[in-house]
Batch of 4 targets.
Target 1
Amino acid sequence: MAPNLTVLVANRDFPVADDGGRYTYEKQPEICKWNCGKLGEALHPLLPTDVSRPALDELFDAEFDKFYLEKMRLKVRRTGHWAEG
C-alpha cells in the first residue's frame, strides 16, 4: 500500500526560508488562490478587479478540486496503488 503523502508532508515547511508555513502541503490550495488573486490585481488595467475577484472567489475552489482529483486518479492508475480509507 502506498503511503499517504498528506500524512508524510502535511506538517513540514518548504522552503526553509518560509518561517510562516505558507508553503506547507496542506496550504497549497490557499496560496495558489492568493497567487491567482495577485495576478488578477496585476492585470487590473486589462481586467478590472471588480470582475476578476468575484470570478476567482466563485470558481477557484471547484476548479482546483476538480484538477487535483483528476491528477490523483491518474497517479493511482499509473502506480496501481489505492489507499484504503
Note: The first helix runs from residue 5 to 9.
Target 2
Amino acid sequence: MNRDEIKHIADIAQIDFTEDELKSFEKNFIENMNLIEKIKKIDTEGLKEVFQVNGTENNLRSDEIGKSLTQDEATKIQFLKNTDILSCWNLWSELWRL
C-alpha cells in the first residue's frame, strides 16, 4: 500500500492528515497491513476455535427476576424530574411504602 492509497482511504474516512502525520502514519499503517497479511497465511486448519485464551469461563451472574416498577410507578418517577423537591419527597416516600 502506498501513500496515495492511504491518503485516498483517509479522504474517504474524512480524516485530514498533515504531511508529517501522513508520513508517520504511513509507516505504521504499512507495518500493520503486512502483519495482517502474515496472519492471513497462518494455517489454522484443524485448530479448535476459542473465544477466550486465558481459561476464563462464563463468570456472569445468573438472571434472576426481581421486583420492578409498575408502569404507573415508572410514570411517577418520570414526573419527578419536573416537580419541586417537596412533591418529590412525598412521592418517593409513597413509592418506598409499596
Note: The chain has four helices and no strands.
Target 3
Amino acid sequence: MSNNLPASYKEAADELQEIVDLLKDSQVDVDVLTDKVKRACQLVIFCKERLRMADSEIEAALKMIDDVEKNTPIAPVEAVSDLEPF
C-alpha cells in the first residue's frame, strides 16, 4: 500500500475511481482488498481536506468582496442617471 499523498485532488479522485473499479471485481484477493480499502480511506481523507481548504479560500474571497463593497461608496442616483446607455 502506498502512503504517498497524491499531488492533487484530481489525482486522488482518479486513484479512488481505480480502486472502486477494482473492488467491483469479486475475485479480488482479500489481502489486496484490505490494502485497497486502507488506501481508499487515505484518499478520502485527503480529498475531504482539499475540499475544506477550497471552501475556506472561497469563503475568504467572498468576504473580501463583501468588505470592499461595504467600503466603496455607491454613486448617487443622479450620477448614475447621467451615464450614457451601452
Note: The chain has one domain: 9-71.
Target 4
Amino acid sequence: MTTKQCKKCGESKDLSLFGRQQAAKDGLKNECKACVKLSNQKRYEKNKEKHKESVKNWQAENHDKVLEYKKNYNRRVRSSVITDDADQKALREEG
C-alpha cells in the first residue's frame, strides 16, 4: 500500500503526505498534512485573540526560557551569517 485516502478531503494520496500517529494501526493520521494544516489555520483564526493571550501569559511566566531561546537563536543566526560570509569570501578568492 503506497497510498491512503484522507478522511477529510477524500483524496487518495501518497503515504508521505500523512503525518505520523503511533496509536493508529498503520502509524499514520487519518487526515493528510494539507487538511491538518488548513484546520489548524482555521482554528487559529477563530481563536486568534485567545491564542495571543495564551502565548503572552506563557512568555511572562517563563521569562528566563524566552531570554535563553533568544540568546541561542541570535548566536545561531550570527554563526550562520559568519559561515556564509566566510564561504562567499573563499569562493571569491578561488574564482
Note: The first strand starts at residue 3 and ends at 5.
